[in-house]
Amino acid sequence: MPELPEVEAARRLCRKRLAGRRLVEVAAREDRVVFAGLSPQRVVAALRGRRVRGVGRKGKHFWLELDRRPWPSFHFGMSGWLEAYRDPRQRPAHWRLEMVTADGWRLAYADVRRFGRVRLQADPPHEPPVSLLGFDPLLGLPPVPELLALLSRRSAPIKPVLLDQSLFAGVGNWIADEVLYQAGLRPHRPASGLTRAEVARLRSRLTAVVRHAVKVGANSDRFPRTWLFHYRWGGQKDPHDGRGQRIVRETIRGRTAAWVPTRQR
DNA sequence: CTCAGTGTTCAGTG
DNA sequence: TCACTGAACACTGA
Q1: Tens digits of per-residue pLDDT, A167-189?
Q2: Does at least one atom of strand C sit less than 7 Å from the CB of A115?
């Protein structure tokens, strides 16, 4: 679930169900990994009875703005998600935190693999890890000349550079592959070797992919049929993109890259 | 049984 | 100091 569009969808879900309301009941499960060393009691003490004024996000992190600090900040890791429901029996099996408002809605943070994190911080956007993030494509990327200059200092393949959160906050594996596919760039290309025109293409595709995915609420059924996304996992042994070109899968710096040699140079 | 997975961090190296 | 890599983390499902 967890790249920028999914996290933005979670932010909006929080805003819809929690903003302007008080957390009348809060439950937290014992989990020092996900809660980064915090006890359930401390988490509950910080949240219970608080009013939620707003919800912020940058990259793959989001946080609740409460009427008293500290505020909780969330990262989904590989398998975190948010679930809203009214019937307590619908609480997801791997829940870690559940917040209840006076109108009867419940919002649970759940995470099977437990790579996600829930923190309590005085000012989440101004302390690590959020303060260390780079440009959030939804909030705006730097102009082409500046981007060109930044990339010219990176000798690594463009694929892992796109995944560098201190440069492009919120980009994950599928967005990086999608953007490279749409920009017609091989994932192995050294970032420093991209031409001005290629950087311009990369920039505009990154903006477009993220904006569209956010616009449709990260619902992949509503991604354009031309997107690589729909074909990258699907096919068995001989997958092709929507135009019949073969998709290759290979590991680049520890992550699987899916790309189309006939369309990416 | 083994391995990969929509991610991040840390140690080691140049 | 900066940049780059691979391994580790935790757990499930193919």
Answers
A1: 999 999 999 999 999 999 999 99
A2: yes
User: What residue has its CA nearest to the C1' of B5?
Assistant: A78
Bases of chain C below 7 A from a protein C-beta are 2-12
**Separation of A227 CA and B9 C1' (Å):** 31
Contact between the CB of A153 and strand C at under 7 Å: yes
Give, rounded to a whole angstrom, the gap between the first and last alpha carbons of chain A: 30
Give the number of other CB atoms < 10 A from CB of residue A37. 8
Q: Report angle CA A121, A138, A4 to the nearest 5 degrees.
A: 60
Specify the pLDDT at position A233: 81
Q: Is position A145 annotated as part of the catalytic site?
A: no
Q: Is the CB of A78 under 7 A from strand C?
A: yes
**CATH 3.20.190.10, chain A: domain bounds:** 4-132
Residues A10 and A14: their CA atoms lie apart, in Å, by 6
Per-residue confidence (pLDDT) for residue A239, from 0 to 100: 86
**DSSP strands (E only) in chain A:** 23-28, 52-58, 61-66, 71-75, 80-85, 95-101, 106-111, 117-121, 248-252, 255-259
Outline which parts of chain A fall under CATH 1.10.8.50: 144-259
Is CATH 3.20.190.10 correct for A4-132? yes
The predicted pLDDT at position A1 comes to 63
A190 is catalytic: no
Is residue A234 scored above 70 in pLDDT? no
Into which CATH architecture does domain A144-259 fall? Orthogonal Bundle (1.10)
Catalytic status, residue A237: no
